[in-house]
Every structure is written in C-alpha cells, then in structure tokens.
C-alpha cells in the first residue's frame, strides 16, 4: 500500500465535519462546485486533489497550505515528517552489500521477525506501519523492517549486528547461514 495514501487516510479520519467544510471552501477555486458538493469525507476530497494532481507524494505544498489554513499544525508536522522520510528513503534506494544477508534472513526468520527487530532497536510504531503496509506478506514485512533498520543505522548497519541479534534469540541456524 502506498504510504502517502495511508497518510491521507489518517488525515481524513482525524478531520471534523467543520474542518472538512473549511477545506472544501478553500478548494473552491480548484475544484468545481458540483464536485465539491458531493464530497462527504476527507478521503473523497483528497482523491479529487490527487486526480487533479494538486497533491502528489512528491508535491505536498498545496495540502500543507490547506492544513495550515484550518490550523491543524499536528497534521502539518506529520506531513513534513513524511516528506523528510521520503527524501531519506530516496537517497537510500541504491542496492547495497547487505542484500544477501537480508535475503537469507527473510527466507528463514518467519513469524519471529518482530523479536529480531526489537533486538535491533526498531520501534513498535515502525513495525506496525510495516505490517499495515504489507498485511498479508510476511516476507515483505521482514524485508521492509530490515531496510528500515539499515536506513536508521546508515553506515553503522553491520552484518555482525544482524548475526549478534539472531544469536541473541537462539536463531543460530539463520545466523550461520548469514555468516556463509
């Protein structure tokens, strides 16, 4: 699932009726009157803004302006955090020497991946986000959580740390395979 759509959904569910009315009012110059009248939720409004490419995951200034206008600084800060994380992720998208250990871990860790991630220091919130984005794909949850760990650690992400964490949870067979 697209993280930007997830963010918009959370914004939508936190908007009051009066805030939605204010947002619709602010969009009058951009969206036709008939379309605006049919909008019943923030999600519908965001869908129209996406369709008209007034907001995209790369261009959020219009959305930021709307949220500032209705005095939802909490949502503005979430949006800014999303943009910062997206920039970091874009910089880290190159393949990396850790890909082979990630593959081995993904194939062998299974449902105990959260214990491993806790040992590596990944927060529950990040793990929950990963599960929400990949609800029915255990292997993808493991891949994304390991990539999250790599991004978080940066140059300090060492294969030896993975092996130590695996051994810390008696996943010695997996640790041996990673060493190979």
TrEMBL record:
Domain Death: from-to ranges: 98-180
One annotated Gene Ontology cellular component of this protein: cytoplasm
Main location: cytoplasm
InterPro entries listed in its UniProt record: DEATH-like_dom_sf, Death_dom, DED_dom, FADD
DED domain segment(s): 3-81
GO MF annotation: an example: protein-macromolecule adaptor activity
Source superkingdom: Eukaryota
Stored SUPFAM superfamilies: DEATH domain
GO biological processes: extrinsic apoptotic signaling pathway; innate immune response; positive regulation of cytokine production; positive regulation of extrinsic apoptotic signaling pathway; positive regulation of innate immune response
Compartments it resides in: Cytoplasm
UniProt entry keywords in alphabetical sequence: Apoptosis, Cytoplasm, Immunity, Innate immunity, Phosphoprotein
SMART domains reported in the protein's UniProt record: DEATH, DED
Alphabetized PANTHER family for the sequence: FAS-ASSOCIATED DEATH DOMAIN PROTEIN, FAS-ASSOCIATING DEATH DOMAIN-CONTAINING PROTEIN FADD
Protein task: Apoptotic adapter molecule that recruits caspases CASP8 or CASP10 to the activated FAS/CD95 or TNFRSF1A/TNFR-1 receptors. The resulting aggregate called the death-inducing signaling complex (DISC) performs CASP8 proteolytic activation. Active CASP8 initiates the subsequent cascade of caspases mediating apoptosis. Involved in interferon-mediated antiviral immune response, playing a role in the positive regulation of interferon signaling.
Subunit structure: Can self-associate. Component of the AIM2 PANoptosome complex, a multiprotein complex that drives inflammatory cell death (PANoptosis). Component of the death-induced signaling complex (DISC) composed of cell surface receptor FAS/CD95 or TNFRSF1A, adapter protein FADD and the CASP8 protease; recruitment of CASP8 to the complex is required for processing of CASP8 into the p18 and p10 subunits. Interacts (via death domain) with FAS (via death domain).
Protein's UniProt name: FAS-associated death domain protein
Gene: Fadd
